Amino acid sequence: MEISVSVIPNAKSKGIEKLSDGKYKARVDAPAEGGRANARLVEMLAEYFNVRRTNVRIISGMKNKNKTVSIDTN
Q: What contacts 31, CB < 8 A, 6 or more positions away?
């Protein structure tokens, strides 16, 4: 499954929220430096969808706040 995620790095509170249009908003408690926010996003999505971290991959938007993420739920 592929989802669109809007990321807010370095947020004071962390969490993932599903929006009404089917997209997701993620508040990540890591700065957008050195890929740390992306790594934290993968961890949080894996926990949210109850899959392993290796099953979550950022397809596009590595250096952008809007990302497309692939999640293998098998």
A: 9, 10, 37
Query: Which domains are assigned to the chain?
Result: 2-71 (3.30.1200.10)
Residue 56 host element (H or E): strand 56-60
Residue type, 45: L
Q: For residue range 9-67, list pLDDT tens digits in order.
A: 999 999 999 998 889 999 999 999 999 999 999 999 999 999 999 999 999 999 999 99
H/E element holding 69?
strand 66-71
CA atoms of 22 and 8, how far apart (whole Å)? 17
Contact yes or no for 7/26 (Cβ under 8 A): yes
Tokens for 43? 């961890």
